[in-house]
Structures are given as C-alpha cells and as structure tokens.
Amino acid sequence: MTRLDPLPLFPDSDRAAVRHLAAGVALMPGFVDAADLMPAVEAIAEISPFRHMITPGGYRMSVAMTNCGQAGWITERTGYRYDPVDPLTERPWPPMPESWSRLAGRAAALAGFPDFQPDVCLINRYAPSARLSLHRDEDERDFDQPIVSFSIGLPAVFLLGGEKRSVKPRRIELQDGDALVFGGPARLFYHGVGPLKAGAHPIVGECRINLTFRRAL
Ligand code: MD3
Ligand code: FE
Question: Which atom of ligand 1 approaches the CA of 187 most closely?
C-alpha cells in the first residue's frame, strides 16, 4: 500500500489536547506523567538539593528550588541571576535530561513555537501553604523564546495576570501532568501561584513540583 498524503505534523490526539487560554498561553492537560519525571527530579536533587533562596529584599522564599541545565536561576541578598555554578555546592548544576528537553520542545512546538531548545530547567517544590507572589520572568536574554512549564503532584491555583501588575489575575487550576506554554504576547505577563493546599500524591508525595524550561543564555 502506498501513502500519497504526507504524515500529519502532529497526531490528532495531540492537537486536540492543546487549549489556548489567551494569546500566547497554551494548556496541555495530562501532557506529562509524574512517574516518568520523578526519578530524575530525585537524582537532580541529590546533586543540587532543593533550598529556600533569599530574595534581594531579605525574605526567605516559601518555594524550595533547584535547577538543572547549563545554568540555574538563583536569588540571593545581592540579586537575581542565572549562574552556571550552584552556589550551594560550588559545582555546575546537574545536566538537563535529554528526555526532558525533548518533551519541553514538543510542548512548545504544539503551542506554535517550533524551535525551542531550553538550556535551563528551574525546579520549584511547593509544600502546603507555599506560594509564589506575582512576578515576571525577565532575567532571560531572548523574550522571543517561550517558557514551558510542567506541573506534577498536588494541584495549585495558577494566577495569570497581564502586562501590568495592576491587572487582576485570572485563577487557573493546574493539575498533575499539565503542561503550560507561555510565549509571544504573554511572555512577560505577571503571574504567580496561590498557597498550596495540603494533600498527598501517590508518586510525588505531599507537595507540588513545577518544572520551568527556559532559554536563558
Ligand atoms: C507566565 N513558576 O518559576 S509555572 C517560575 O508553578 C514560575 O512554579 C510557577 O512562575 C510555578 O517563574 C508558574 C507557569 C509559568 C511559567 C513562566 C511564565 C507562567 C508564566 C512566564 C511568563 C508568563
Ligand atoms: Fe515565573
């Protein structure tokens, strides 16, 4: 049997799974599986442990963070930056698993960003009551590149603001396995995460983990 028509770029099942929430914001429910991601999260955290970083204002963040890839996002009393060295271990951050960068690239492509090659993955861990106040991700070099986020574990309320801090945020429930892609007009939108509600996930445990893939350097 011969095939006259070219293979579709994406299977219909994938295309159906993309929900465009706003210009530049795409949600893919159930795009990732906690069971696939958790072993590497644990391996990364053995090398570069989760830690509560200090903001330039002197506050300890309620979210615990680590990174993998060519650099990591850090905040200290002295300011924010991407650093190729983990200040805790004084060693390079663990490498980003190839399966992760491929998965993030596929999510970006489904959302309309075909050439996304992340060099940093920031890993956020939320225990009950941990939250992330409204902020913009603006420490990356090229804002034409999207940010891809994978959520696993307990659900959380994601707060999607707008171009200005004054825009009242929309509340979006992020579930275990969800992928979100932010790019184009939404790339510099204010956003945050509401306080995590207690609970237990069979694989992730009593927390939520969020991976954000960035082209930072
Ligand atoms: C919207 N993380 O790490 S992920 C962050 O759930 C961060 O841990 C949140 O905000 C979390 O900086 C939200 C979704 C997300 C990530 C990047 C964005 C939303 C974004 C960049 C621009 C606009
Ligand atoms: Fe952010």
Answer: 22
Q: Considering the entire predicted model, what is its pTM? A: 0.94
Taking only the tens place, the pLDDT of each residue in 169-204 is 999 999 999 999 999 999 999 999 999 999 999 999
The two three-digit tokens of residue 4, written as one number: 């006259």
Nearest C-alpha to atom 8 of ligand 1 is from which residue? 210
Distance 102 CA to ligand 1 centre (A): 19
List of domains in the chain? 19-214 (2.60.120.590)
Cβ density class 112-133: b for 16+ within 10 Å, e for less: ebeebebbbbbbbbbeeebbbe
Atom 12 (ligand 1): residue with closest C-alpha?
A: 137
Pick the residue whose CA is nearest to atom 5 on ligand 1: 212
156 Cα–ligand 2 center, Å: 14
Cβ-based burial of 16 (10 A; exposed 0-12, middle 13-18, buried ≥19): exposed
Q: For residue 205, which of 2, 4, 24, 41 has the smallest C-alpha distance?
A: 41
